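Hi P.,

Sorry for the delay on this. The queue was packed all week, but I finally got your sequence through. Input first:
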Amino acid sequence: MDGIRFAFGTLTVLPVRVRRWDRGAARGGMLWAPLAGLVVGLGAGALGGVLSALGAGALLAGVASTAVPAVLTRGLHLDGLADTADGLGSGKPAAEALAIMKRSDIGPFGVVTLLLVLLAQVAVLDRLYGLGWAEGALGAVVAGVTGRLAMTLGARRGVPAARPEGLGAAVAGAVPPRGGVRGRGAVPARVRGGGARRGARRGGAARCGGARGRGGRGAAPSALCAALRRGDGGRLRRPGGDGRDGGARGPGAGALSVGRRVGASARDLTACGAARPVPPRRARTP
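Then the structure:
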């Protein structure tokens, strides 16, 4: 519970009291960071999905789904993105760049970066909500989870903190190197399950039998279907191992399996999209 409190207390505006501030709590908090992202993503997807279902339009739904994470996190990630852009864009040595990033104001690089990133998010969600309210809501949820998964990966052992103080120093190196790979991926399994059920209702994607319609609208669900059939419930097995999870647990543990399945779906896109269902053979009459 201390890890969950750490994740929600530091990454969201939810009134959760952090009782422990040590390496153990930081490790658990970073492993549970995708769970905090799931809650934020569910809020974003719920508002955007309701607006889309009520006929408010895909663009307004995309704007709403982009605004909810900023509100639920007090703009924590947006502020960090702007600081990073200002520091890297300054072209200064490391010490001076860190001093620029620590300032409370925002420079031109930060403004331009925030503008482009937010426009890109709205554009992508607008496209997804244009396909349907469920597609847009699912996209918002996946974005919330994967965005916090980056924190789990960044807090792995061997990645030092840029400064000896602050939140980064508290969590840097707290996650074991294999903490993001071993164990069960509970959140990705939920996401894959929801995508598979939605894909099965669109274009007969329950079978990898080819894309329906022109433009390949059914090709992506078909490719996802092929990737899901190879799924193992979100568990990554070590070569020669018995497949049992033996490391850190939490939504962050094992979540890297999503990347493998995304890559697999991309490789299978052509094969699944071009395949055609084979009719059953008729028995020959003597």
